[in-house]
Automatic annotation (TrEMBL), chain A:
GO terms for molecular function: ATP binding; ATP hydrolysis activity. It comes from the Bacteria. GO terms for biological process: response to antibiotic. It is a peripheral membrane protein. Keywords: Antibiotic resistance, ATP-binding, Nucleotide-binding, Transport. Residues 3-232 form the ABC transporter domain. Belongs to the ABC transporter superfamily. InterPro entries: AAA+_ATPase (IPR003593), ABC_transporter-like_ATP-bd (IPR003439), ABC_transporter-like_CS (IPR017871), ABC_transporter_ATP-binding (IPR050763), P-loop_NTPase (IPR027417). One of its GO terms (cellular component) is plasma membrane. This is ABC-2 type transport system ATP-binding protein. Coiled coil: none annotated. It is found in: Cell membrane. It holds the Pfam family ABC_tran.
UniProtKB/TrEMBL annotation, chain B:
It comes from the Bacteria. InterPro entries: ABC2_TM (IPR013525), ABC2_TM_bact-type (IPR047817), ABC_2_transport (IPR000412), Nod_factor_ABC_transporter (IPR051784). This is Transport permease protein. It is found in: Cell membrane; Membrane. Belongs to the ABC-2 integral membrane protein family. Pfam families: ABC2_membrane. The chain crosses the membrane at residues 21-47, 53-76, 97-120, 132-157, 164-183, 220-243. The keyword Transport applies. It comes from Nonomuraea soli. Keywords: Antibiotic resistance, Cell membrane, Membrane, Transmembrane, Transmembrane helix, Transport. The lineage of its organism: Bacteria, Bacillati, Actinomycetota, Actinomycetes, Streptosporangiales. Signal peptide: none annotated. GO terms for molecular function: ABC-type transporter activity.
Length: 241, 251
């Protein structure tokens, strides 16, 4: 298993953000983590990316315990964050950013340039590699982030809202790239069409708990509905919180 | 770890040279102090060679200003979320801090050399020659370590960049006035002396002033020793705050 969580939990003071969450991801599988805002998606991801310690339970990522061996976990994952402002590197070119991050992922020095060029090519940015990031469109910035998540050939790619705020063309472009990667992906999203198109399996969470899990087809069939939107609303309620 | 520090430092160097105007103004700033401030005051004070006297003060002031801004990238990485991205990578936490020191010591050393070159036509030549210049660079490296550590600690502890700028804006000039940058400690009012003596800046300036105006003597190692202890203590605070911020051991 690429990811195996065991009653993973996180509390912030009195509030329980994630409550005894159990799920798994098999090699090569794309698993969607769905839930309304505040359901615990980002908290779960931050625990798996070793940025936030778990309050209870544990998880193994690529066989490494997130508590005992966070460094081994970090070597095995590529983490593409939700909406990183490019301000910190907007004066770098896409290529420079990729090369710097390749070095940070300990890609051997003589292979850094080659590997950066490879991942930029993979997301269709070769033509724009030497442009400053500040000149990139939102979609190009997302693809650059995606490319940088792949530099060290991770076994698991964690994507937090990879197409948030993008236009339809850019979203389809990003999806095409995600589908062809062949690595296991944990995808947190609010877009049901995205989950439907990309994910092999879905876990819907609300208030930090799993409320439904299965393939998109299974989930729709179980409720006799046609769209994932209906599945989502049936499990998480229709009221706006 | 070397690869990590080099990669992180490369980011700062590329950005530095792409912001050319920023670079130009920060290089020119000390010249304005030296020519107009020290030059302007030189007729009004009893000190013989006031420009030579004020040179270490101008150097210290420049190093302090640069070192405070050294924390800004960390502050912004924290607020934009890029710090989290860095922390999700298999890098040593210490590399993030160390790259700031490496970059800032290099940058400040270059700037100090520029200031010393500007001082040449104004008639100031360090009494200790080239070894003295190396001594000055060692002093400014220690001062950079001290102030950068304090600023990094503040950047980690401050709830927002607004607080960071409010505190550093408030503290920077008083830190200078409460030192011997422009007035010898002996001619300060008696109540001010202990304040100046408690200020690490005073020791950095004292060491540099001896190297510029007199020569190597017992005073230089003593002042550098005090400065070194202060730098070590502030580094400890910086590392502690950074570890608290990132929830990790810094190793």
């Amino acid at each position: 298993m690429i990811v195996e969580t065991e009653a993973l939990g996180r509390t912030f003071g009195e509030r329980t953000a994630v409550d005894a969450l159990t799920f798994h991801i098999a090699p090569g599988e794309i698993v969607g983590l769905l839930g309304p805002n505040g359901a615990g998606k980002t908290t779960t991801i931050r625990m798996l990316a070793t940025l936030l310690p778990a309050s209870s339970g544990t998880a193994r990522v690529c066989g490494h315990d997130i508590r005992d061996d966070p460094d081994a976990v970090r070597r095995s994952i590529g983490y593409v964050m939700q909406q990183v402002s490019p301000m910190g590197y907007y004066l770098l070119t896409g290529r420079e950013k990729a090369e710097i991050e390749a070095s940070l992922y300990h890609v051997p020095r003589r292979r850094v340039k080659e590997r950066a060029a490879e991942v930029l090519d993979l997301v269709g940015l070769t033509e724009h590699a030497d442009q400053l990031v500040q000149e990139y469109s939102g979609g190009m910035q997302k693809r650059l982030e995606l490319a940088c998540g792949l530099l060290h050939r991770p076994e698991l790619l964690i994507l937090d809202e990879p197409t948030l705020g993008l236009d339809v063309q850019s979203r389809h472009h990003v999806w095409e790239h995600i589908r062809t990667l062949g690595v296991a992906v944990l995808l947190a999203t609010n877009y049901m069409d995205e989950a439907d198109r990309l994910c092999d399996r879905l876990t819907i969470i609300d208030h930090g708990r799993t409320v439904a899990t299965g393939t998109p087809a299974e989930l729709k069939e179980a409720l006799g509905v046609l769209t994932l939107d209906d599945v989502f609303l049936a499990h998480t309620g229709r009221e706006v919180s | 770890m070397t690869q990590e520090v080099l990669a992180l430092t490369r980011r700062w160097v590329i950005i530095l040279f792409r912001e050319r105007l920023n670079l130009l103004f920060s290089v020119l700033q000390p010249a304005v102090w030296l020519v107009f401030f020290a030059g302007g005051l030189s007729g009004a004070v009893v000190i013989d060679d006031y420009i030579a006297f004020a040179l270490p003060g101008v150097i210290a002031f420049t190093v302090v200003g640069n070192s405070v801004t050294a924390a800004m990238p960390l502050l912004f990485d924290k607020e934009t979320g890029y710090l989290d991205k860095l922390l999700s990578m298999p890098i040593r936490r210490g590399s993030i801090l160390l790259s700031r020191f490496v970059f800032q010591v290099g940058m400040n050393s270059a700037q100090v050399i520029v200031i010393l070159l500007i001082a040449l036509p104004l008639g100031v030549r360090p009494a200790t020659g080239v070894p003295g210049v190396i001594g000055i660079l060692v002093t400014t490296a220690l001062l950079t370590l001290a102030i950068t550590s304090a600023a990094l600690a503040l950047a980690c502890a401050a709830p927002s960049h607004g607080t960071f700028f409010a505190i550093t804006g408030f503290a920077t000039l008083p830190l200078l006035f409460m030192s011997n940058a422009f007035v010898p400690v002996d001619s300060m009012p008696a109540w001010m002396e202990p304040i100046a003596r408690a200020n690490p800046l005073t020791y950095a300036i004292e060491a540099m002033r001896l190297l510029v105006m007199e020569g190597w003597g017992g005073g230089v190692p003593v002042a550098l020793g005090v400065l070194g202890v202060a730098s070590g203590a502030l580094l400890g605070v910086g590392v502690w705050q950074f570890a608290r911020q990132t929830g990790q051991r810094v190793a």
